Amino acid sequence: MKKVKILSTGCYIPNNVLTNFDLEKMVDTSNEWIITRTGIRERRIADKDQSTSDLAVEAAKNCIDKVNFPKEEIDTIIVATITPDMLFPSTACIVHKKLGIKREVFAFDVSAACSGFIYGLVLAEGLLKIGKSKNLLLIASDVLSKFVNWQDRNTCVLFGDGAGAMLLSSTDDEDIEDGIVGTYFGADGNYDELLYIPAGGSKLPASFETVQKNLHTIVMSGKEVFKVAVTKMVDSVVKACEICGISVNQLDLLIPHQANLRIINAVGERLNIDPSKIFINVDRYGNMSASTVIVSLDEAITSKKISKGSLVGLVAFGGGFTWGAAILRI
Ligand code: ACO
To answer: Are 240 and 184 in contact (CB under 8 A)?
Structure first.
């Protein structure tokens, strides 16, 4: 088995800022309600003509350029997203084209909602370890603003757009200590109707009726999502640490999925982690779905909150329900 090295991370956040005060003018809500219930102050919204692949490409370029990596050496592109540019081709194929990579690659999307980046990491690790890939670009990109009902105050205050990327490579060097230390992941499809977009797939293809009934936007049972999210995120961190033979306290930083500050705080309390070791940017970006953990990791590295040798835990939970955690040595 080969070892897996993390070469670089990057991110892209759209410029347009939508504040809680802007939302006050759109739906019956208040800055105070949103901050108290979610911790979110503002989120970023992609331009009308910006699709998921556009954000993905910018994040990928940011990631590749940081280490001047020759893009022709990338043999695999995985994009974690639930807001693909279109049903097919995959967003990963579109990213391959837009990056201008000439060589043929292995390219596909992963659909695991907010857990998409962790699921992608698990796949990346497998492909790199068994030698099916040498240099792999893993991207998480979501433009949920285009699938939000902007008249529904229960959901529209929660989400934002963004993308993050990671470049990983396989190596025969037995002595490297950085990379993916271990992962834990799971799903339970019995929760499918607590968080979903009803139409637009083969079950309910787009029609005049689906548009009229607003069935192409997110439907969510907030309270139920909250409870299961906390339980599964706590469980995922504990199990991932067990798999790695470490205690939760040994983590230098925990990067939880940024859906809601109350979920993050509840997870931190149950794991008994010092709040200073929990990364938070949900106040600035809202819930960017699969992108939250990789954007956060990139920000934590860039801001020097973590440095070479740091042990970092990523944990996510999302529609499906899906969940997962990854322990990384940076
Ligand atoms: N502004 C003002 N009032 C609102 C708003 C709003 N934006 N949204 C809902 N309300 C109202 C409700 O209508 C309700 O009014 P009522 O009592 O008259 O019926 C009241 O506020 C309380 O609603 P609750 O549902 O009890 O509020 P709660 O404290 O549960 O918070 C929230 C709601 C923020 C959605 C919470 O349940 C939550 O965060 N759930 C997790 C959902 C989530 O994060 N989803 C993202 C995808 S999954 C993931 O990424 C983990």
So the answer is: yes
